[in-house]
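seq/struct pair 1
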Amino acid sequence: MGMWIVILIVIIASLAVSVIYIINRITKFRFIDYIEDKTIYKNKERTTGKSGDYGVSAKRKYLEEHPDEEKYKPPKRSWLRTLIGVGVFLVTFVILYFCFSGVEAVVIVLHIALIWAIVEFIFMILAYLKIDLTQLKIYLPGICSIIFITVYFIIGNYLGSNVFVTNYTFDTSKNVEPLRIVQISDTHLGVTLDKNNAKEFADQIKEQNPDVVLITGDYVDDSSSYEDMVAMTEALKTIDCKYGVYFSYGNHDKGYYDSSGRGYDTAKLEETLRANNIKILEDQTEILDNQYILIGRKDKSDKSRMPISDLVNGIDKAEFDKDYSIVFDHQPNDYEAEAKAGVDLVLSGHTHGGQLLPINNIGEIIGANDATYGHEKIDNTDFVVSSGSSAWAIRFKTGTKSEIVVIDVK
């Protein structure tokens, strides 16, 4: 909990700095000069700076013309220039809020500030190299930033809102029949997957001809509606595969708050899953045709969760040594113990594949996760982390893409 409080404080502070920075940069656009000239300075001498009076080039020019000055004092901005900057920002934020969501609007603002700062830094270097672009009579860093940000989020929306297929093939020396697994994770129903595209999503899974479908947590969260949950669960029921559909919990499925506020509680979720032939494995195992062992773990957030060693020790040793074992564990942060337990395959989600550049590996950096995305092998255990078929609250993905994972074991 302490870590999340620190993260929240960092986000709020970053947002405050980003808002001030963006408003300041908006005031550098040259269209404001025209508005000032036609209003407060009409037939009057200008007493505040113009757009071209701010920045590295203006500073260098001033100091060259005033060699006795030790410090550059940028000209004062007019009240109108500042007002326009604030107004443009507020209008933009309101548009983002209603077109997307409050969380997404905040994420976009943070990215705008970061990308704009990077672009301005590049132009600052050019200015110090005396590559002066101010003669173009436009605020080029701002225009370049807006174009880049627009393209960035168009691509991010495409990668996050569409579900792609990622394939893996693992060879095993164990005497088992080939198995095709489809892993879906982090659907977070209501963001990009809901009742309107539930059938389409289930059809995409059917096209992969799975032998078994494993849902590795965060199927729903606090804001997922009852209607979306029922529609998706009924759609998944139509998947006719050899071993059926299995589910294990993620950190959002049981709700962080009063889950009854979303129209159903954990008991109702489980009732709906079971009524649609979706089997729940929560620190439980199931053997398929004496060839494959499914081990579904409770989420790490559940304090009653059993160690992987205890789960494995509860399986007949001869059976465990003979069969191919598949663990589905929502959060990828127990790699050492799972490898030591000698399981063959571990499937996880939770990280959303890093979701957004440049913070896509933050979970590994702070030690929250053992991996962020993709395949890794430790000893004889293969680990796969899915980027998820959707994401929590944010439909954009720029560090990865939404996916279903298809794994062939041979």
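seq/struct pair 2
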Amino acid sequence: MSFEEFKDIFCKKVKFANLSLNEKQVDMFYRYMCLLLEWNEKMNLTAIVDPEEVIVKHFVDSVMIADYFKFESNVIDVGTGAGFPGIPLKIVRPDLKITLLDSLNKRIGFLNEVISELEMKEIFAIHGRIEEIGKNKKYREKFDYSTSRAVANLAVLSEYMLPMVRVGGSCICMKGSNVLEEVNGARNAIDILGGKIEKIDEFLLCDTDMKRSIVSIKKEKSTPNKYPRKPGIPTKEPLY
């Protein structure tokens, strides 16, 4: 897909996120897509390879939370994978300081390549498991926000995300449709971990029938030191 074709489709789709982007930002998204598809031929980054689907399901989906963050906030993207939502957020909100966390070192190599090629500042990719990073004093309760997209059930996700956020900060959880049952099953875990559900927003993605939900969790008190538990335990024994 040429840049002009990309620009035409992207600008139409991104309007659904109520964002007005300049030429440089559109070009950054285009170069990001090219790198994603190029690297995807060598390693598994995404099952979505059609350019228009990348625009809708990765780019626009990621930036739907762009206005959830206060100016110049410090954000960690937990389980970022190929950089979603962290890199699209950084492109549309350059004021944010973003840390991309992933457990696979090969993906960190890709993320660093994107950061370098797009000449992005105040965005960092780190390798590690969230259960271990969440115990590290360098990162624990140091962020204004944590966010995550399609990583785990909300009860498990809360144990990953809440330890990273300072008291007064928030977790912005990107989920699919029918999230209410998941939310109700996670309320006890969220309470144990020091959080409280603030709001749930639901919307349709662009001009599709794909439903999305955004669950905002406020950090009201410090997370007990024993959380997150050791790698593998949160998924095997969620705090229901």
